[in-house]
Design brief:
The protein has 375 residues and is an alpha+beta fold. It contains eleven helices and 13 strands.
Length: 375
């Protein structure tokens, strides 16, 4: 008696769905996992013919019949089950990818008394597989986009040159405005193409001990020029004791330029952008990510460079997408600024932290490792 009780418990606790039938294909056992996978409660299933419970899944009845009549067992047969959620979760009527193994059940005399099917839910495995296919597709798209960008760049050069020639020949005032538009728009396209090419074929970084304040000063000057017709104040607050960091000036300039540009684009007329730096001591890192202070992993000193604005902020929904290549909410944006910056910072062994409230503003912090010689 006790033994039967334990066996029942084991069956009940299994992660795999267990469905047993007798020789007339009537369901005798239906565990919790089977309920979850099929979306049908055991009280409805037990005592019913298998084909009444799985009317759409004729393949399932077929393999159980084959197991019963021919003694044929199936091992990890992959297929799908139509989930009938109405009884357990109202309105659910999904498709669950599963694999099924079957076996005959015999009594102590060796006579067949039924069959058992073990059902394994493959939904999460499929999600992982799909994710990896998506990544492959993205990598392919990157290469493809780079190829197209490369091809488009040359004719664009021609268009720009021709527009410039034309503008010199045109005597009629006002018409040169059109050629100027052509040149300006070609320049904008060229910039996007450069970014696409950069994205697909990143230059290898050459990290050296550098003073990040020098990089930031250049950016602030450029930022002031960019913000000209917007009355934006850029306020800097540097930690004078900030040691040198390990980095490559050129790509880092690109990163902070992208960040300042985003802030300028996000703020309204009386915008305010703060650029703060400080040292974070005893910073604990796990694979380049911020971790629990007590995790016992390698500690590192990091520099934090914070760009804070009082602009439009980022909605919760968009927050997850802002680092995705080509995601933009701007009419003239390419959506590559943050994706590119993310990669550059990752290559430096650093990372980002973003806090944003819609309508209030955004703070983007970049963490970069401090140079060994400075430690
Ligand atoms: N400081 C910020 N304030 C508000 N939204 C921001 C800020 N920074 C980024 N975003 C949002 O993230 C999106 C992606 O930014 P990203 O810099 O990658 O592309 P972009 O600015 O749209 O185009 P590009 O930088 O290529 O001109 C932006 O379109 C914007 O919606
Ligand atoms: Mg941008």
């Amino acid at each position: 008696m006790k033994q039967t009780y334990i066996s029942e418990n084991i069956i009940e606790c299994l992660g795999e769905g267990v469905i047993c039938i007798d020789t007339s294909l009537i369901i005798t056992v239906y565990n919790q996992a089977a309920e979850r996978i099929s979306g049908l409660s055991r009280s409805l299933a037990i005592g019913k013919h298998i084909s009444d419970i799985f009317p759409k899944d004729t393949w399932f009845t077929e393999i159980l019949k084959k197991t019963l009549r021919e003694g044929k067992i199936f091992i990890e047969h992959e297929n799908i089950i139509y989930q009938r959620g109405a009884q357990i979760k109202p309105g659910v009527d999904g498709i669950v990818p599963i694999n099924v193994s079957t076996s005959v059940i015999t009594d102590s005399n060796g006579d067949m008394i039924g069959a058992v099917a073990l059902l394994r839910d493959l939904s999460s495995i499929k999600t992982i597989q799909e994710e990896s296919v998506r990544k492959d597709r993205l990598a392919f798209l990157g290469t493809f986009a780079a190829g197209v960008a490369h091809e488009v760049k040359n004719p664009l050069g021609g268009i720009r040159g021709a527009a410039q020639l034309l503008s010199r020949r045109i005597k009629e005032k006002g018409l040169t405005e059109y050629t100027n538009v052509i040149v300006r728009e070609v320049d904008r396209l060229n910039k996007i193409l450069e970014e696409v090419l950069d994205f697909a074929n990143p230059r290898k970084i050459n990290p050296l001990p550098i003073n990040i304040h020098e990089v930031l000063d250049t950016i602030i000057l450029l930022g002031d020029a960019m913000a000209q017709n917007k009355e934006v104040r850029i306020i800097k607050s540097y930690d004078p004791s900030l040691p040198l960091i390990t980095g490559d000036k050129e790509p880092l300039t690109q990163v902070f330029l992208n960040l300042i540009k985003n802030s300028i684009e996000a703020v309204a007329r009386d915008g305010e952008i703060m650029v703060n730096t400080r040292v974070l001591t005893d910073f604990h890192l796990v694979e380049g990510r911020e971790a629990n202070i007590h995790s016992g992993h390698k500690t590192a000193k990091m520099a934090s460079i914070e760009i804070k604005d009082n602009g439009c902020g980022i909605s919760k929904e968009n927050m997850e997408k802002i680092f995705t290549p080509f995601f933009t909410t701007k009419a003239k944006g390419s959506g590559l600024g943050l994706a590119l910056s993310f990669r550059i910072i990752k290559e430096h062994g650093g990372f980002f932290r973003i806090e944003s409230t819609e309508g209030k503003g955004t703070t983007i912090s970049v963490f970069l490792p401090i140079a060994e010689i400075a430690l």
